[in-house]
Amino acid sequence: MFHPSNLSPGIGFLLMLGLGAFMFFVAYVVKSMVKNTHDFVIADRRIGFGFGVGSVIAVWTWSMAVMMSSAQAFTFGTSGLIWFVVPNGLAVMLMVPFAIRLRRQMPAGYTIVEFIRERFQNKPATTIALVAMLLGLLAEIFINLFGVVLVMGVVFGINPTVVLIVTLATVTIYSYFGGLWTSAITATFNTLLITVPAAIVVLAVLAKVGGPSLVFQKVEEAGPNTLNAFDGAAAAGFGISLSLGLLASTMADQTFWQKAWALKPATLGRTFVWAGLWFYPIPIVLGLLGLVGLGYGVSLEDLGAAGPGGVGPYVVSHLGLPIVLIALYVLIILNACYSSIDGAFSALSSVVAVDILKRAKPDIAPKTLFRWTKSSIIIAGVIGGIVVSSGIDYVELVNTVYFLKAALIIPLALAIFWRRMTALAFVASLVLAIAVGYPVREYVGELQGIITLEAISLVAAVGISLLQRQSFDFGSLSRRNSALIESDHAVDFGGAIVPEREVNKVTQDVDPDPVR
């Protein structure tokens, strides 16, 4: 059934560089829209519904969505696919109440770290939030770089170091020019280049192996619970912790908060709802490749160093499909990885500008700020290349990142919605939850670890806050000044000095019905 892949590495280089050249063309066109740091990191808060939906889907459809869905289906059968897919879309849609509330509370905001600083006025809380955001964004870059290395190695046998250099050079160059505008526009193109091609490739694979009925028959023969959609092994192995981690990865991820503050207020809610719904077909379709691999006897030895994450590329490239379909599949992976990397670059640049450079030197010259903000993309790319070249395990990296991010769910949600939440409670809940929950995960099990982590987080956050008996005035957030006033006329907006172009009439413009 499966044959050796003898595809020329030249095809792989052509795909990587060709896609990069297209993205660079878009970035060059967009360049005229970016005049300063404010434009670079927040797109003048003018991203509309179309680009908004496309950009949210694209940054969420990273290498994990297109390859780990196959990996979990290959490892656990249909239950693995279900546990991976369902919480992914929900995590995006559940962003709606948090995004709307925080945008109303803090209309001139840029980053979630900035919110934590203004909310608690506490250096340890701010530092923890800053470190968490930077590490989370770097992890996104690592994971997606690994995705490119994996697919190009499995399909074309290209040296990982060479793939890293080409990918980093390509994405860094086009991200450097346009910031969030480039990310939003290229991401929308990427979304279109992922959805339809994915369906075409998977339909071709199913036809090649005898149709979906035969695939599910083979999957059932591969093990006793492979077609049991509610098999507890997947839930205990990764499903519950991944579900909570996915929620944290939207709610506690600057990539999504950057979009929340950059979108036009009237489209904010429905953008996240539609992005979550539109996302679903992508991992469902590509996850079927994992079932094909499971049913037709692909082994871990066949996948080699790539592990379960390489099952999708292996199936597509070793079935004897026409080269054009294999190239189309590789483009799907490249699109997903490129768009997620440049989205993480853009989000990281906003954190660097607002929470590092402006805090370290409030009177920094606008041109100097702009230059260093863009340079942070290059630095992040170099760090990403070093980490990925170390040979870290892809699936374990994903699961660990999401487990640690899950510690942010309760304290951050309470910080946004509960005026009694305190700085000490925020810090203690995070530190204690990870300090106890992570060892439990390592030595007892994934499920026990996530239960421990969330239980300690909840008890510490609520208990300490109630004992301290403090109350926060959320109205103070709307009266704060914009962090990046660089141009246009400044006006008094509810007591805050905000650039005239940033006054979004938030109370009138936010859509009261986010689904409408």
UniProtKB/TrEMBL annotation:
GO terms for cellular component: plasma membrane. It is found in: Membrane. One of its GO terms (molecular function) is spermidine transmembrane transporter activity. Keywords: Membrane, Transmembrane, Transmembrane helix, Transport. The chain crosses the membrane at residues 12-30, 51-74, 80-100, 127-152, 158-177, 189-209, 229-251, 272-299, 319-338, 377-395, 401-418, 423-441, 447-467. The keyword Oxidoreductase does not apply. Belongs to the sodium:solute symporter (SSF) (TC 2.A.21) family. This is Cation/acetate symporter ActP. It comes from Mycolicibacterium chubuense.
